[in-house]
Write a structure and sequence with these properties.
The protein is 12% helix and 31% strand. It has helices at residues 22-29, 41-45, 62-69; strands spanning 75-79, 83-85, 93-97, 103-107, 120-125, 131-135, 140-142, 147-151, 157-164, 167-172, 174-176.
Amino acid sequence: MGSGTLKGRASAGTGDPEDLTAEQVRTLLNVADGATANASDTYLLNRANHSGTQAISTVAGLQDALDSKAPAALGVNTQTGANYTLQLTDRNSVVNRNSGSSNTTTVPPNSAVAFPVGSTVVIHQLGTGASSIVAGAGVTIRKRANRNLTLSGQYALATLVKIGTDEWVCSGDLEAV
């Protein structure tokens, strides 16, 4: 038989490779014409040598890494009682103090609630009752010298930022001393 035939055999694996044309071998192996058969792994792994797009889901861990970098929407925790002590779930969230009576929000010591340094909590006086922030045992809350830790009225906001193990800074719409 001439070049380009399988000599009548049932499969190409039973014949001599020289019995097939190069085009037939590529077809059987599903390799396109012009494919780079001998490129090094370094070349093939270099993204600069590729075009097109790749779905995020095909890169292990990429979506989680991106999510950890993007700012998340603040959670909201509405409290109506007279006293509330911050919980770890309040980290990077807004605590609404919705009461017609005076109320306090306590910042607990690290030994009770271990907020990571850099955590923020926004206190929002949603109700008409005066909302105050108090330091738990061993906690220091820093603020401007001419302010106290009572929000200035309904709809006022104050932000707490943890700057040390038992040290926070509070800034926002606080009453003047």
